[in-house]
Specification:
Blueprint (H helix, E strand, L loop, with lengths): L5 H4 L2 E7 L7 H14 L4 E7 L11 H4 L3 E2 L5 E2 L2 H9 L8 E3 H13 L10 H17 L4 E6 L9 H14 L4 E8 L2 E2 L4 E2 L2 H12 L6 E6 L5 H11 L6 E5 L7 H7 L2 H9 L8 H11 L4 E9 L9 H13 L2 E9 L5 H5 L3 E4 L8 H14 L3 E4 L1 H13 L6 E2 L9 E4 L15 E9 L4 H6 L3 E8 L2 E2 L4 H6 L2 E6 L6 E6 L5 E4 L14 H11 L1
Parallel strand pairs: 1-6, 1-7, 2-5, 2-6, 7-10, 10-11, 12-13, 12-14, 14-15, 15-23, 16-17
Antiparallel strand pairs: 3-4, 8-9, 17-20, 18-19, 18-21, 21-22, 22-23
The chain binds glutamine (GLN).
The site of glutamine has 11 residues, from helix 16 and strand 19.
Length: 532
Amino acid sequence: MGETTPMEAKQKFIFVTGGVLSGVGKGITAASIGAVLQAKGVNVSIQKCDPYLNVDAGLLNPAEHGECFVTIDGAETDLDLGHYERFLDLELTQKNATLSGRLLQNLIADERAGKFGGKTVQLVPHLTGAIQDAIQLAADGSDVHIVEIGGTVGDYEGLSFVEAIREFAGRVGRENCLYVHVVYVPFIGTSKEFKTKPAQNALNDLRGFGIVPDCVVVRTDDPAPEGVARKIALFSGVREDAVIMLANAKTVFEVPLTIAASGINDVLSRFTCNEKTPDLTKWKDIVTAQMKDHDQTVRVGMVAKYMDNEDTYISVLESLKAAGWQEDTAVEIVWINAETATDEDFAAVDALLVPGGFGERGVPGKIAAATYALEHKKPYLGLCLGLQVAVIAAARRAGLEGAHSTEFDPNTPNNVVYIMEGQQGKESTGGTLRLGNYDAVLKDGSKVAETYGTTDVTERHRHRYEVNQKFTTDIEKGGLTISGTSPDGKLVEFIEATDNPYFVATQAHPELKSRPNRPHPLFVGLVKAAKQ
Ligand code: GLN
């Protein structure tokens, strides 16, 4: 533990911290720094450290905290991992998401198991040591490892992380660490000036914890005059060419371009001894596709229960947008409140999308959306719960009275969606979720096989309930066919309507695999169908 081989010592570490405010784009900045390094041919890895006492993001309220992003190995993580995956086109795992709660849980378990040999167990060095071990583990094999620390420096709960990254320089050598502090500079409308004081104070806070940053990223709403950077450099002791002004970009995918054009590129070149000019073709293409005036617009109805926070469905929205860019079509998202939705709402859009969800709120409206799509041949994409409500809709159409999922009606006479044998009774423990990558085999000649262009697929999952294949005949009578299952045939993975140009649903979360320049085929299929 803690020992450094000469090989590892050459690996570089970039720590991204924040000051003044959270939510000014620290995650996008970290991801974009990674994107620029990748464009220079560097092998990058990335990690998010969050100071919460939660063990993972699985039980966090998505309305407050945003989407729960699931990795291939089934880790339930913060939505920042989704940004990282989309920006860096990597598949991340549990080790890329580090939470205080998980580290403390492990430390306390070790303490109870007597692994500390009678020593006092302390935040320093034990928690800070565990954080550093977690960083080295996540860095494994890359040339440059980027670590984003959640929250802002000075937050009481984040102190162990700040201390750990300070100590980390002792492990691997200060010359192998680059500390980037992201601060916000507000523009005060009444006096018409940018105010650097909060940023100066934030930099003082960081220095107070023993970290002198190598680079300061100054976020502003609008471009700021040069004097602002000079002032911050003067007060913080950071070289002026390492104080980088970053005004709001038009879109997040423009940030790698603005970062590459800014002084950060030189900072990164010096730090990694890599003078290569980044090849930004990929990012230029993405931004061009995004900014283009499209000839056509499709209206996709998102039948959802969280209406006031786009972060809750961020991967779904990003997937739809990317599908639109590929198809040269603007995608307008029409929010349909599942709790109040009527057929008129469904009729007013070109396609319907029912995303994943837990709990009963809004479920009747989602079933109504699936019913409407079946009856009116409206393009439909169902994601996880979106598949389950479609199965319920079909079963009811076939005359199965009160057909339901036992999640919403434990006493339903027709449990078309249920918890499988062996999983029953564990519903509330959180331990029975099917999480992460699972393979599926698609039926030859099916719509999904045609859309994917293959019959063997792997998708990420996060759900507890499954389709009850006892009711397959009824589900078919209601207008659906099972078009993909687990390789052993036991689990239903995909369904589609027999009598609809594009009514497709999956038990998985394909949105997690979509990329801005490589949209997921199921979303492309929906946009294509909506165009017609
Ligand atoms: N609540 C459903 C289940 O647990 C669907 C979950 C989801 O949509 N992710 O099976």
